[in-house]
Amino acid sequence: MAGNVQELRPKAGGDSEKITINLGYVDLGHVDLLVQDGFYSNRTDFIRTAIRNQIERHAEAAKQSVARKSLDLGLRHFSRADLEAAQAAGQRLDIRVLGLASIAADVTPELAKATIASISVLGALQASAAVKAALADRMH
Description:
With 140 residues, the protein is of the alpha/beta class. It has two domains: 33 residues, no CATH class; 73 residues, no CATH class. Helix 4 packs across helix 5. The longest helix has 15 residues.
């Protein structure tokens, strides 16, 4: 399983997830001041840097938690062939991912329901709306 996992570095654009945050006016003003003074290229650059610094600060605790919870780290893709092979072997998958879990677009809700016992994603899950609906009771 570890052979199918790739480490990801967040990038701008299609390889990232958009989030919204609320900041107080004074905090936002400080961010804008640092951008204006050239410390960061824009607000997003500041926020990404702050997040990465906090992740680094807690890296050891996060590493231990990933191991304790048996999480796949990075990108984990499940193709139709993967799920059909699991079904043929009589296996049901417990999917636990920190990063991005994706289920191929050609996976039917019935196949997903038959082969995925549980799914827990810290980050983002990419799957069809029908597959997500079929697995809703198995998501943690």
